[in-house]
Amino acid sequence: MDFGTWPRLLVANVEGNGANPPDLGEVAAIPILDGRSVPESAKTALIRPPQPITAFVTSVHHLTNETVAHAPAWDLIAPYVQEDLHGAWIAAHNASMDYNVLRRHLPTWEPAGVIDTLRLAHTTYPTGTRHGLDALLAHIDVDPTAIPGRRYRAGFDAHATALLLIDLAAHYPTWDALIAVAVPPGMPGSPSSPHRDEEQTLW
Fold first, then answer.
1. DSSP H or E run through 138
2. pLDDT tens for the chain, residues 1 to 203
3. Which residues, 6+ apart, have CB-to-CB distance to 65 below 8 Å?
4. Exposed, middle or buried: residue 20 (CB in 10 Å: 0-12, 13-18, 19+)?
């Protein structure tokens, strides 16, 4: 894989408040450049959602109402998030979740394309491992304690997914070969490919 042929790509992750549909509580994006993640250029923001974060969701991602009490409302940071995402591909693990939440919060935004590392992992490692993020990090020998932050927070999960994507991409000879597998049908950047039901995750 020649990583120099890649377009601008940001690995994104969002965390919600447990509402249905979810309001944003945290958003993060980390670029991949020349085949490596660039954590020093990552963007992470806490957001004060209009409805409280539920106790159940706090138990998953440890994001509390106290944590976001003095964070800006979404309307104040949305223009900056949209500017950062403008013109870029995005990647996420089970990308339909992050993509749909971002699209609902940024109705005039559309990424250049969407890569789903869950979908990609199913093809790259069809047997011998589970396809949740934790299992895949273990499979590719990534030490999660070396990733800043904590699991289920947006910055950590974006960084972890970036490392996973770099590993998965090395199994494909070209960018076109990668996206032929990695882009879910019907999403931006999608070539013709069979549909796969996407795994559900918690917010």
1. helix 133-139
2. 899 999 999 999 999 999 999 999 999 999 999 999 998 999 999 999 999 999 999 999 899 999 999 999 999 999 999 999 999 999 999 999 999 999 999 999 999 999 999 999 999 999 877 899 999 999 999 998 889 888 989 999 999 999 999 999 999 999 999 999 999 998 999 865 444 344 433 33
3. 52, 53, 58
4. exposed
Q: Report if pTM > 0.85.
A: yes
What is the separation, in whole angstroms, between the first and last Cα of the chain? 33
The region, left, alpha or beta by phi > 0 then psi within -120 to 50, assigned to residue 171 is alpha
3-state helix, strand, coil in the chain (%, to 5): 40, 15, 45
Give buried/exposed letters for 135-169 (b at 16+ CB in 10 A, else e). Answer: ebbebeebeeeebeeeebbbbbbbbbbbbbbbbbb
- CA separation for the pair 182, 130 (Å, rounded): 17
